[in-house]
From TrEMBL:
Residue stretches making up the Purine catabolism PurC-like domain: 9-130
Protein name (database record): CdaR family transcriptional regulator
A Pfam family assignment: HTH_30
UniProt xrefs under InterPro entries: CdaR-like_regulators, PucR_C-HTH_dom, PucR_C-HTH_sf, PucR_dom
Highest taxon of source: Bacteria
Ranges for domain PucR C-terminal helix-turn-helix: 313-364
Length: 380
């Protein structure tokens, strides 16, 4: 997770900072924090290019411009040229920057931040660098989670990744994978104190939470529910997948996969939560995709192509499975008359299983559609 100016403004010490310019440029990357003292006085002309680096956030008291406000214009132009991410000033020399200076900064798309009070430079730098270091750890953690979910691990590979994570895992674990109809943008550092032995991480656009305990009878589900309440989400837009209770040392990768695939079916079924243990035939489809995705894709291509060539047949087939054959609900979903739904189902049966009984037709179509939806929600 790369640190941005927006992240900087979320630090405890910067909570009272005011954004004066560059409101639309706060997603700029911020790699370090530097201090501007006298660099814009005449005698430092030749050194400015060496004193500030690209993607840095610059702190200043503006003491150098105490007797010459024109130096403020030069400062803004030069910092923008050096591609500095933002400038934050302490209002001791200038309580408010001249409007013309702010306009110039806006023109150069340079965010200018105003200190909220008497914050010390050293404390700001410490908190910013601490956040950056944690962000580097977060990037590594996300990379590790990606490997564990997307690859089949040997025992040696799994143990190596667990060691590198350096997390205080206990013997048993429970994992959840959460995806949302809206973008998840939680600052996970705020929630780490509530998770004593486990981890919080993003996996692509999803959130992964792992909770561990030495007691196999620990109330994982209840504790996870309490933790999730801290996020204050709109549950109608959340799809959560939960793993089995597993042994951390041997089954971390498997539990993460279970949570991930369960979240896919929670989304497919438009449910808030779906536990891997509650999936039945879906588990067979998951294993098929994990073991031989190429075969699964070829099978779906052969089965679905004929439905895609006729308008509305594929969407009707999907609706048929998701609404468990309820014609009335399907008609509402498809915005058509129930007889139209029946006609389309007849066409689908002629294509998929013309000689099968209704039971076999539903069974065959169910497997095809669920496999199709699984592949759609699980891109490579």
């Amino acid at each position: 997770m790369v640190m941005t100016v927006k992240n900087f403004l979320e630090l405890p010490i910067t909570k009272d900072f005011k954004v004066e310019t560059g409101h639309h440029d706060l997603e700029r990357t911020m790699k370090n924090v530097e201090i501007l003292d006298f660099e814009f006085m005449q005698e430092f002309n030749n050194l400015r290019d060496q004193m500030f680096t690209e993607n840095s956030l610059v702190l200043t008291s503006l003491l150098f411009a105490k007797d010459d406000a024109n130096l403020l214009f030069e400062m803004v132009s030069k910092l923008a040229e050096l591609k500095v991410s933002a400038l934050a000033y302490k209002p001791v020399i200038y309580e408010q920057l001249p409007e013309e200076v702010l306009q110039l900064a806006e023109k150069h798309r340079l965010p200018i931040l105003k200190f909220g009070g008497d914050e010390f430079f050293e404390d700001i730098i410490f908190q910013a660098m601490d956040y950056r270091n944690k962000s580097s750890q977060t990037d590594f953690l996300e990379s590790s989670i990606t490997q564990l979910i997307e690859n089949e691990m040997t025992e040696e590979q799994l143990q190596n990744i667990i060691r590198q994570m350096s997390k205080p895992f206990e013997k048993y674990m429970y994992a959840v994978c959460i995806q949302s109809d809206e973008k998840l943008e939680e600052n996970l550092f705020h929630f780490e104190p509530f998770l004593r032995t486990g981890l919080l991480s993003y996996y692509k656009d999803k959130l992964i939470i792992v909770m561990t305990n030495n007691d196999v009878n620990y109330p994982f589900h209840e504790k996870m529910h309490s933790l999730l309440q801290l996020f204050n989400w709109d549950l109608s837009k959340i799809h959560l997948g939960g793993s089995s209770i597993c042994e951390t040392a041997d089954e971390l990768a498997e539990a993460l996969k279970e949570a991930y695939y369960s979240s896919i079916f929670a989304k497919v079924y438009s449910e808030v939560a779906c536990l891997y243990a509650d999936l039945q035939s879906e588990q067979l489809l998951i294993q098929l995709v994990r073991q031989d995705r190429a075969f699964a894709e070829k099978f779906i291509e052969q089965s679905i192509t004929s439905l895609e060539t006729t308008e509305h047949l594929l969407e009707t087939a999907i609706s048929f499975i998701l609404y468990e054959g309820n014609i009335k609900e399907m008609a509402n979903d498809q915005f058509c008359h129930p007889n139209t739904v029946r006609y389309r189902l007849g066409k689908i049966k002629q294509i998929i299983a013309p000689n099968a009984t209704d039971f076999k037709f539903y069974s065959s179509l169910s497997q095809v559609i669920l496999l199709y939806l699984l592949l759609q929600h699980h891109p490579l």
